[in-house]
Amino acid sequence: MIFGKFLNVFYGLQKRSKFCLLPTSYFLLLFSLATSAFAAQSSYDLMERANALYREGKFKQAITLYRKAESRGADPVATSFNIANSYYQSGMYPEAAASYRKAVDFSNGAFSPALFNMASVYFRLRQYPECVAAYHRALKLEPENVSGWLYLGEAYSKTGDAVGALRAIEKAYQFDKDDISIVYQLSEANIALNDFDRAVSVIREGYAAHPDEVDFLVYLGDVYRLNKKYEESAGAYREALGVRPDDTATMYKLADVLAEDNKPFVAMDVLNNIVNIKPDFTDAAIFL
């Protein structure tokens, strides 16, 4: 499935709140308010120094200062979250997960960035059931977080739960039907359950919304072929060639499926066209 690209991105808070994220990083959470003027000043200074160290990649020193800031009255949600991010950047994933859990606990489960990041760390640790549970908690707080549903779908796929993966990606698709990558992911999730009709329907919906995405038609031909519907596959490839008539890669797919459908002479005509358009297409010449 086409999920991987989504997993290297950590959650970033989009709206203003007392937790103000630095513009240069989605990992770093600034200190909010403390209990007294003196404590706020001293803890604020410590947080500023810790944030500077974080930006410089000095995560061990940053963790030390975040802890000192917390001991002087800094918001424990902010300090725990930043400590977790520092651990994550250092590749210390179990420690990061523990600190994210602290941020979640200190916020009474209400701070969604910590939940999303904690889920991502569980994924890296290959603790997929815990990852699924964390994403569900986060998505209860932010049910329209499209990336969260996609990450959840990937986590489900790692547990072998194809139905859970499909449901999660369906949610993402409901919220963002304009994202072409989600169309492909949803189609593949349906194919994993052998629901080729739904996969075809999703691809057609995607192509209707994005008529410039001719690759949808090529992909449709691949899906039909996978389902051994060779005539429909050839029809989809020809439909794509109607838009891109000199696309030799699609022509080769067409020749291949025609040969598989026991239509060698029609396939030869297509292969001859390929060689005429692109004489150095050696695979086509050998196939011919």
* Structural class designation: mainly alpha
Mean pLDDT: 86
Number of helices: 15
The parts where pLDDT drops under 50 for at least 5 residues are: 1-26, 30-41
Distance between the termini: 33 Å
Helix content: 55-70%
Cα shape: elongated
Write down the domain tally: 3
Helix-strand topology string: HHHHHHHHHHHHHHH
Secondary structure elements and pairings:
Blueprint: H1 37-55, H2 59-71, H3 76-89, H4 93-106, H5 112-124, H6 128-141, H7 146-159, H8 162-175, H9 180-192, H10 196-209, H11 215-226, H12 230-243, H13 248-260, H14 264-277, H15 282-287
Helix pairs in contact: 1-2, 2-3, 3-4, 4-5, 5-6, 6-7, 7-8, 8-9, 9-10, 10-11, 11-12, 12-13, 13-14
Give a structural overview.
The chain has three domains: 18-107, Tetratricopeptide repeat domain (Serine Threonine Protein Phosphatase 5, Tetratricopeptide repeat, Alpha Horseshoe), CATH 1.25.40.10; 124-213, Serine Threonine Protein Phosphatase 5, Tetratricopeptide repeat (Alpha Horseshoe), CATH 1.25.40.10; 224-288, Serine Threonine Protein Phosphatase 5, Tetratricopeptide repeat. 70% of the residues lie in helices and 0% in strands. The protein is built from 15 helices and no strands. It has helices at residues 37-55, 59-71, 76-89, 93-106, 112-124, 128-141, 146-159, 162-175, 180-192, 196-209, 215-226, 230-243, 248-260, 264-277, 282-287. The two termini are 33 Å apart.
